[in-house]
Write a structure and sequence with these properties.
By secondary structure, the protein is mainly alpha-helical. It contains eight helices and no strands. The chain has one domain. The relative contact order is 0.15.
Length: 188
């Protein structure tokens, strides 16, 4: 996707499983780091085995489904944008529940949101989107910022969450559709 993203060139299109299901979400380094930084003990998946059960069952089911009915690439892009949004805002809510400052909430939300995509890209031998000019982490940052701003203005939390989700998804999909990228600073 170097010079501009095209729908058919998304790294997850050919990887099926890695797009629909983060292969080892329990071992994602940034959410584990987030939980350590927020002093959340024990780590969530250690105390609730249902996370493991869901992953163990959904992994093979996803692989079988994708082999029989390959999804269109646009479906994968929308799912990726939704995953980014939901994980970013969920991570932000965890930081918010730990009474972190707004800047830390944005950072923790962004870390949580981008980790699955980074792991997916590394496992599929792609340069992670966050290390390219793609509007990826920026979309997560903006969505979490909207979520916090709306709450500061008195909006109910579910409404702010929905608006933040829409911002992340819209920014990500618009960036893909029109090839929007972050600027590159040249050496002097």
């Amino acid at each position: 996707m170097g010079s501009g993203p095209a729908v058919g060139s998304h790294p997850a299109v050919g990887s099926g499983l890695f797009f629909f299901l983060d292969p080892l979400p329990l071992l994602d380094p940034l959410p584990l780091l987030r939980d350590r930084l927020l002093d959340r003990h024990p780590i969530f998946w250690v105390t609730d085995a249902w996370y493991l059960v869901v992953i163990i069952i959904s992994g093979p089911v996803t692989v079988a489904y994708v082999r029989i009915w390959p999804p269109p690439s646009t479906t994968l892009l929308v799912a990726d944008a939704l995953g980014l949004a939901l994980f970013a805002l969920s991570g932000a809510q965890l930081a918010e529940a730990a009474h972190c400052a707004p800047l830390i909430v944005v950072l923790m939300g962004t870390m949580t949101g981008v980790t699955g995509g980074v792991l997916r890209d590394v496992i599929t031998a792609q340069v992670p989107l966050i290390l390219r000019r793609e509007i990826y982490a920026t979309a997560a940052i903006m969505g979490v910022a909207v979520y916090l701003a709306l709450q500061a203005l008195g909006a109910p939390r579910p409404l702010a969450f929905g608006a933040g989700t829409i911002v992340v998804v819209a920014l990500r999909l618009l960036a893909i559709r029109w090839g929007l990228q972050l600027p590159v600073f040249r050496k002097f």
